[in-house]
């Protein structure tokens, strides 16, 4: 049996966040953090500069091509938002060489973007100022599976097959077959990467938001968003997906199960455009 920390330690030899991300993070954490310095750091990476400007000028922010310099983008977005965007844009390059057995990478990233869009739609609907951060956390929500399929592919596949056959929750079969579930592994990975503590808290509690402490509300949002992804994967109706969510989660979010259909429609509507923005080498099928 394997622990989440053990799997992450093995994955660490294969993937790591780019240096520019860590430098931006250091600048953000510094009491003397400078917008000018973050702009300089991003501007020193031509590929990252091009992608950041493309995202900022997309429908995601609605500036319609008006932002033509990194400095201007950083001024408008702020340090925190630039940090989150650089993190999101780094994922495709971080895992570009990872080709896990038994895993369809197209479907994985497609599902990740759908989770991100659904989480953002929920947060926006609730009027939360952290909607864009929920997008990034949603994008990271399934990273634990990527680690599992890379480090223990046969066990991860066996757990999926057992869950599909029995109808049991996948996390339950993962704990029985592997020793930990994807939420634990994802939380351990982002903690190892030293991302903001709320990322680890949300990912670790996404299966049971009550365990999220101060991040329980955000964990509930990701929990609901994940059901949208599952419904898409298995061809379920929004009503079926909503019925799987415990009533306490709906109460916690002050939402009704009927709202899931709207959230799903919004995520599906934007899916192709956002996959193209963050994972340009993929094509939505």
UniProtKB/TrEMBL annotation:
Pfam families: HDOD
UniProt cross-references to SUPFAM superfamilies, sorted A to Z: HD-domain/PDEase-like (SSF109604)
HDOD domain ranges (all copies): 14-209
Top-level division of the source organism's lineage: Bacteria
Record-linked PROSITE patterns: HDOD
Signal peptide (UniProt feature, chain positions): none
Descriptive protein name: HDOD domain-containing protein
Species this protein is from: Pseudothauera rhizosphaerae
